[in-house]
Write a structure and sequence with these properties.
Number of strands: 13
Number of helices: 19
Oligomer: single chain
Shape: globular
Largest sheet: 8 strands, mixed
Strand content: 15-25%
Structural class: alpha/beta
Length: about 450
């Protein structure tokens, strides 16, 4: 299996002095177990526990003394306790034994030499309110679907992956990288889908995998729910999310339903905790601090664009296009850019926002805003000339800087644009496939401006 960017994050964590137990959050099937198994190659001993299995669950149900628990785990797995400081302990599906999460604090306090990672689905919702999270005793990382650079590695396109990270990219790489990105846009970033396509190059075989993924999430619904009514709300929210992805939504009557705002709001927030969706809230300011307005309608981001394509039935449209901005009224590529921006963030507090100006006379909306060195950089996902970027011009008229970013189907360039208010600003135009390199290009962009 291909390497994930988060593997480097996990290696850094494992080498930190005074490291805390780590909880990896992420939706089912995004590759949490795989990446921890890869990390285990850097340790002398590895204990893998899946708490869905009775034998692995038993020690946590039987022993609440940390010393006895540690001894039992090493004994059961036939490993040397003398090498505990060179051992990785991975507790998978930790939600099956709620008290196991609380036990993590005692690993930090009484067995700090053992590198401990836990993973599970829907931790915040599944755990009993009497089970306290070990605040201050654990760290958190988030794992999302595969990014475009990781996709290239999975497809054995190592040269393409190397050039992708070269700043600035050579112009001769553009046609092939754009073609590869179209394939990535089509199938998405779920590891099982990519592995199957890499091995077979057969798009038709992927349908059963997409179906299986959504069935898995639907089967989890009862675990997420506190009542039979909430089961129905969440099931409906999952189905409707794919048709509403990329759009600003209202909880009341979500997805043409008759459900109340309270019911749909609770269902969608539950799916957000499960990392199946993200609710992106708008900001109205153009400088830090970034303060989302939760009174305004959020934009819906689903877990994976490939799943969105499949369930929205737009796969053939993607195959025949020269510019992804022409597919699904531009919603597809805007959604995928958001997915790529999220893929580079591993913090549990990370997220995305966009900008709006809502007045009676006119409404303006910028696709994303991105914090960079004390600035809020506006990001638009659009084709066409600079003159068509009216919302971006309005944002830049108010912004205390002159840097803006646009993703499109064209080649890398820097141009100057003029707002209606007469302000000149610099626009970095990047091809879609460079979203994963946003921070590196903003550094380069800033340097080019200073030298011009």
């Amino acid at each position: 299996m291909f390497n994930r960017s988060i593997l480097q994050e996990l290696i850094k964590w494992s080498e930190k002095p005074g490291r805390k137990p780590l909880v990896i959050r992420g939706a089912r099937q995004v590759g949490k177990t795989t990446v921890v198994n890869q990390l285990s190659n850097t340790f002398e001993q590895y204990i893998y526990l899946n708490l869905e299995l009775p034998a692995d669950r038993q020690p946590f149900e039987q022993f609440d003394n940390i010393e006895t628990l540690v001894q039992a785990l090493f004994f059961i797995k036939n490993l040397s306790l003398n090498k505990k400081n060179k051992t990785l302990l991975f507790i998978d599906e930790i939600q099956e034994v709620p008290q196991a999460l609380n036990i993590l604090r005692y690993f930090y306090e009484s067995a700090p030499g053992i590198a401990v990672i836990a993973a599970g689905s829907m931790l915040e919702t599944l755990f009993d309110k009497n089970i306290s999270f070990p605040v201050g005793r654990v760290e958190y990382k988030v794992l999302r679907p595969v990014s475009f650079p990781e996709f290239l590695e999975a497809m054995n396109e190592k040269e393409a992956a190397g050039y992708l990270r070269q700043i600035p990219e050579p112009s001769f790489t553009h046609p092939k990288l754009l073609q590869l990105f179209h394939t990535y846009a089509l199938i998405g970033g779920m590891p099982e889908v990519i592995a199957d396509y890499s091995a077979n190059k057969d798009l038709t075989s992927l349908s059963s995998i997409y179906d299986s993924l959504i069935t898995t999430y639907m089967d989890d619904v009862e675990k997420y729910s506190s009542s039979s009514a909430q089961v129905q709300h969440i099931r409906y929210a999952i189905r409707a999310s794919f048709s509403q992805a990329g759009k600003r939504i209202k909880f009341e009557g979500f997805g043409n339903s008759s459900y109340r705002s309270r019911d749909m709001g609770e269902a969608l927030r539950t799916l957000e905790k499960a990392l199946l969706i993200e609710l992106l809230y708008p900001c109205t300011e153009v400088q830090l601090p970034l303060l989302p307005d939760h009174k305004k309608s959020p934009r819906l981001q689903v877990l994976d664009t490939g799943m969105l394509n499949f369930f929205a039935g737009i796969q053939k449209e993607i195959l025949g296009t020269a510019d992804l901005n022409k597919v699904y009224q531009g919603t597809l590529i805007e959604h995928l850019v958001g997915q790529e921006l999220l893929a580079t963030q591993f913090s549990a507090l990370s997220g995305l926002n966009f900008w709006v100006r809502e007045k009676q006379a006119s409404t303006a909306e910028v696709d994303y805003i991105w914090p960079f060195e004390g600035k809020l950089i506006p990001i638009e996902v659009k084709s066409g000339t600079e003159g068509k970027l009216k919302s971006l011009h309005l944002y830049m008229d108010m912004a205390p800087h002159t840097m803006a970013l646009r993703f499109y189907a064209g080649k890398l360039s820097i141009t100057k644009a003029l707002t209606q208010g007469g302000k000149t600003y610099h626009l970095l135009n990047l091809p879609y496939y460079l979203v994963s390199q946003t921070d590196s290009y903003l550094q380069w962009f800033q340097k080019q401006i200073k030298e011009s």
